[in-house]
Design a protein that fits this description.
With 239 residues, the protein is α/β, with parallel strands linked by helices. The protein folds into two domains: 2-121 and 172-237, Alpha/Beta hydrolase fold, catalytic domain (Rossmann fold), CATH 3.40.50.1820; 125-170, no CATH class. It contains ten helices and eight strands. Helix 2 (73-86) packs across helix 3. One of its GO terms (cellular component) is membrane.
Length: 239
């Protein structure tokens, strides 16, 4: 594990990362999802793609990369692009899982690999809608401390700046961003994913003109058991 420091818009970041196969001449970058870290991606994919230099990154606020700021997805993309410049890395192949898929799309790589990417707004369950309604109602009357009771356990464990960052990014509609992506895309999905539905994957595949789509048995982390097939398809499908 190593770190590199960078500054974007007067915001300072120490980015934790790890490189596998450092002597390889072609790069593949892995971006994890919200609440995750680079180790999950590394543990799954490092045994494969031996001809590539693997770059695993902890996005700011996750894993061993600290974050003191309220960020947007556009800022996450700019931070990641600047970090890749520090490693003299190309943008040939970027793999993004869940939230990392949105960041990867904005970076506009030559080959985009999406694993159950976030970015398509889906209908919220009724209980979630009710919680949101009461939270907004209480916020209107300045009762912010009470609204914390309506947050999920995962959200409650976040620092305040990461909670505000989460609010910035959770309801983003990437319909236009996917439509505007004109490079090569490989899209992989879990058939039983309840975090980002199979229908969302099919929608993204329809929006990105130069894309291929394949689904596997499994949930949001379907790629853990299907890494060998996915990496073979990446090797055969990149341009």
């Amino acid at each position: 594990m190593a770190t590199k420091s960078l500054t974007i818009n007067n915001k300072f970041f120490d980015i934790s990362y790890e490189i596998i196969n450092p002597m390889a001449t072609k790069d593949i970058v892995f971006l994890h999802g919200w609440g995750s870290n680079k180790d999950i991606m590394k543990n799954v994919f490092s045994p494969y793609l031996k001809n590539f230099r693997h770059i695993y990154i902890d996005l700011p606020g996750f894993g061993k990369s600290e974050n003191k700021y309220v960020l947007t997805t556009n800022e996450y993309a700019k931070i990641t692009e600047e970090f890749l410049k520090l490693l003299n890395s190309s943008k040939d192949i970027i793999v993004g899982h869940s939230y990392g898929g949105k960041v990867a799309t904005l970076i506009n790589p030559k080959n985009l690999v999406l694993l159950s990417s976030a970015g398509i707004l889906e209908e919220k369950p009724l209980d979630v809608k009710i919680k949101i309604f009461f939270a907004k109602f209480l916020n209107f009357f300045g009762l912010k401390n009470i609204t914390k009771r309506f947050r999920s356990k995962d959200v409650n464990s976040m620092s305040e700046n990461m909670y505000l960052t989460f609010k910035n990014v959770v309801n983003e509609d990437f319909f236009q961003e996917f439509s505007n992506f004109t490079n090569n895309a490989l899209i992989f999905w879990g058939k039983n994913d309840v975090a980002t539905s199979l229908k969302s994957g099919e929608t993204i595949a329809n929006l990105i003109k130069k894309s291929s789509f394949i689904s596997y048995d499994g949930d949001h982390y379907f790629f853990v058991k299907n890494a060998k097939d996915i990496t073979t398809r990446i090797e055969n499908g990149i341009c």
